[in-house]
Structure formats: C-alpha cells, structure tokens
User: Fold this.
Amino acid sequence: MIVFKRGILCACLLTANALCVSAQNLQGASISLNNLDAFRASGTNWSIGSDAIANPNVKGDMKAIAGTGVLVDVLNPKDNKDLITKEEFGDIELELDFMMAKESNSGVYIQGRYEVQLFDSWTKLHPEFSDCGGIYQRWDDTRGKGNEGYQGIAPLNNAARTPGLWQHLKIKFQAPQFNAAGVKIRNALFQEVYLNGVLVQLQQEVTGPTRSSTFENEQAMGPLMFQGDHGNVAFRNIQYKPLKPFIEVEVKKRRTIENSIFVKADGKPYLLRSFINYGDKKLTHVISGGYPNLLNFSYDLKQGALLQVWRGDFMDVTQMWFERGEPQLAKPLGSVILLTGAPSIAVLNDPATAWPDSIPFDDFGNKGYALDKNRFPSFEYEYKGIKAIDKISAPTANSIVREINVSNAPENLYVRIALGKNIEKIGMGHYSVDDKSYYLTLDDANKPLIRETAHGKEMLVPMAKGSNSLTYSIQF
Assistant:
C-alpha cells in the first residue's frame, strides 16, 4: 500500500537532524557509573556492573556482569526503589543506552516528574502511550473510575528492540517556566524523543507530572529519576547537556513540508527496487522487502548480500517518485541495523583467508527471484559455477529468517553470516552480535567458525561439498 502524507510530521520521521540551532558551543557531561555516588539513597535492587545480560526468552531474566560502567536494576522481594540523581536539571538534552528484560517495564523521568516510558514492546504493531517511547499518562482519581488516566502520548512508531539488546534513547526536554510570582506561564515540553535513532515524539506538551512521579508539583529544576520498582532494566552511557536554543520557524517549516511519499507494507509483503545509500556508497541494484509485521530488509542483487534489516515502517520513496525522481534513493523509515555489503558466499583457500569485499562482475550471475505463496522472495544467482538460492522471510514478528541453498559447491565454500566488533555465544546456537545490537540463531550442527579480522569478528559457516543448505534467524 502506498501512503501519501502531506503537511504533518513527514520529514521529521525520516532523519535525525536537529531542529534547533546553537548560539554557542554547549558542553556536555556524563553521570559516572563507577559507583552509585551520583544518586540519592538507593534500594538494594540497584547495582553497578561492567555489562548486563538478559535471556530474551525468559521473563524478567537479567543479571549484572562484574565491573563498572553499567547501572543494573534487578528486583528483589523486599527493597525496590526508584533511583534519583543528586544533581538537578532544567532544559536538558539527555542520551543513554538501556536494556530491557523480557516483559519488563521501566521509565526515565525528567525532573522526576515527566516519564518517557521504557517497555518490552518490540513486536507490537500499534504502540500506545504505555509502550516504549511513549510519554506516560497523567493520573487523577477524582476523574472517576475508568477515567483516571489522561493525556498519555503514544510514540509515532514502534522502534523498540528485542529484550537483552542495548537500545538508545535521546530526549530533548524544555522545562516549564514560571513568572516572578511563581505562576506557571509555559508547560513542560518534549521537543523531540528518539528511540534507536527514530523520532517517536515531536513537540509534545505535558500539563503536569505523569503517573508515579517523584513530585506532585512542578518546578523549573528537578533530578533525573530511573524507575526501579516495575521491572528489570539496565542503563549505561548516561550523558547530558543544556538544551540548545530552539527556533519555532524551523519546526513550522519541517511540519509543513509537502509531497513526502511513504510506502507501507499494509496487508501483504511489498518488494521495492531502488537505489539506496549504504555507508558512503550508492548501491544501484537493491531490492527491499517490507512485511506487515513491521520487519524489513534490503538485499544487493550484485553481491548476494543481505545489507540491512529494520523494524518499523517501510520506505520513504520521495526522492524516487516526486517530480523528476532525483537522486532516486529510497530510505528506510525504521531503526536500521547494518549487516554487510560484502558477498555472502566465498571460496577460501583456507579458513585464514580474508573475506572478499566484492565479487567481480564477470564471476556473478544474477538469475532473478521467485516469490512463494506468502510473497517471500528467493534470490537466485551463480558464482564460479556454484548455484545459490537465498530466501528471506519473516514468518513471525520475532525475526527475519534466511535460508541459503547451494549446489555444485566445492569443499572450501563458506557462508559469512555476521561481522561486528564482537560475537558472543549466549546459548546453544544463540549469539549476540556487535555489542548486543542483534541476535543470531542457527543450528550448532552447522559448526560456525568465529574468527578475528581487521574489522572485528566474523562468523563463517563451512558448506559441504555438493548440495547443502543453511538456515539462520536474525532477531532485533
């Protein structure tokens, strides 16, 4: 389904460009997580570690790894408290990483009053204020039963990731203002909230403290509060700086940009042929697939490479379809995980041979693709006489599944399925990749090889001589 959106938030959904300008170089700072000294008295649910680990398949599972640099909240039967900073803030730009346990619930309260919700809502198609990236509702018992909650604001998109993965939150917050008599003359305002690089809140006022806030009143300054009594969660890289001056005309300009054209995969999978930017390269032979469960991918037809995956809305095609269609690029609308632009299969002289950056034009023969009854594509190609069929599907909202079948394979054929700073085995056939950016699951019978390279670690799977297949899933 093709969706045309005019005059409302269009360009704001597409990029993470700032909507403000700076009159000076505003310096930032970070909260030390070598200990809990930056916080007021805390419950025993909070501790400091070097990392956190959470099994995405086990409700509430989370534990801290010994060391420093990560704030970990693990509930206990007796003493669970929220964690509040000693320092107080007014207008603030806050960034941090967080990790959710399965089915966990937490939140970041600016000034201890206004909550941006954190929640394990990664597969939800239509997020509400109570989902990750929402601004939580206010609460008033005097409104009558069933009407106590009000003014909650759902995120524009669901950009949440799988529990146990590190996620990123960025908040630009404008504190309420008061006159000399202490009377409020301007409400608190969330200028922008980004979840995993995707804009989820824009120009949202809050008329007062949200539910479960530390304070019932409003002030020009207040501490940060990390909700600690609802579910297990971890935080790291907590950084802040004063909010830059904001120019309303820039917001007006961005909100009234017309002729933005989005493609959504509503009802059935959608395949789009386009150019895309991949790093510093413009790739010209790319097919992207979008599925109704909000999982999406891009595939390079010249290299047999699965380039990227993302969760959320499908594609912005304005540069392809508006006016003369320049510069002909399609842009993902969700939170993108870059995989690799290198070919997926290669013949190596031995396991220490470096993986090729590309396949020469004369060695790669693209044979097109076929769709199954669910419109999942299988891409077919030949490489040095080897025949490959590469199927990409998303049968559930949990993961993208890739199945590679080869025939005429020599003994030294390998498939590369991951490249990242690190690759950690966290269970039978289960791996986290690139500092817990995404998960891989494959049968241990495939005997994956994890090796060091100049670019980090990579995972290779050897393919038997003749005909063979490999199936794995990417969860994010």
